[in-house]
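Q: Could you fold this chain for me?
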Amino acid sequence: MAIAVLSGLVRPLIEPHLPPEIEARWYTSVEEMHALAPEAEIGWFDLDKKEPMAEAVRLADKLKWLNSIYAGLDFLPLDLLAERKVTVTNGAGINAITIAEYVVMLMLTHAKGYREVVRAQDRHEWLMDSPGKLELSGTRALLLGLGAIGGLIKTRLEAFDVEVVPVRRSAGAGALGPDDWRAKLGEFDWVILAVPATPETDGMIGAAEFAAMNDSAVLVNIARGAVVDQNALVAALQAKSIGGALLDVTTPEPLPADDPLWSLDNAQITMHLSGRAQSKMFVRSAEQFVENCRRYVAGEPLAPIFDPARGY
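A: Sure. Below is the predicted structure, expressed as C-alpha cells.
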C-alpha cells in the first residue's frame, strides 16, 4: 500500500477515483502536512506559500513521487529531490491555454492603447481617437521557450498574422539557435519570454539585450522575473530605448509598492495572474494526478516529468 499525502482541497475530485493500492492521508493545514510528510511515498504538497512546500519535501524522506500543480519548481530543494531519485511530475501544460491567451491579451492591450481607453471610461471621457494604432498583423515576435506554453503562444499569434520565430537547440526550419538570437534582436517587434527558470536562463535579458532591441520593441515576460535583469529593464524603460514591457512576473513578488516599475507608463504589470485566469486548473490537475496514480500502480511512466537536475 502506497501512502499518498494530499491536500483536503482536492479530496472531492480525487478520492472517488484513487486505485485501491494507494491510501490517501489528507491535510488541511501546514502543520498537518508537515506531520504527515514523513509517511509519504506519494506527495502533493502545493500551497500558495513556497517555503512550507519546500519544508514538506525535506521532511518526506520516504518520497518516491512528488506531484505539483506548479510548472516551475525552482523554489524546492531540487538537489535533494535529485539525490533521493524522486520522480517529479509538474503542472506543465495545465495552464498553457490561459497563459497563451494572456499573452495575446497583453499584446493587444499594448497595441490598441487599451489601458488609456479604460482610464477614459473611468473619467467618463469620450475619446475622439484611438490611443493605440498598432496592428499585430505583419509584426515579428521572437519566442524564447517553445514548451507547452510557448507552442500555444505561437499558434495563437500566427492566427493574428504575427511572424513568430522560436529559439530552439538547433537552428533551421524558421527557428534560431541558442547562439543566434541575440545578434538578431533588433529585427523583432516583440520579445516573448516563456523559458523555464534555470541557472542558464537567470538574467538572460539584460542591458546588452535591451541595447540590441529596437526602440519600439516590447518585452513580454510570462516566464519568471529572474529571467530579466530588472534594474536594466527599468533603465531601458525610463530612457525609452525600448517600446515597453508587459510583465506578468517580476522580482520580487509581490512587487513592493514603491518599486519604479509601477509608475512607468510604458510598463504593464499583471501580478502573476496569467495562470490563474481560468476556472479549470484544479479539475485538470486532479484528472492528471488520478491518471498518474493509475500509471504509478501499473508501473507505467508518469507525465509530465520535471527533471530536478535540469530544473525543468
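A (continued): The chain is about 30% helix and 15% strand.
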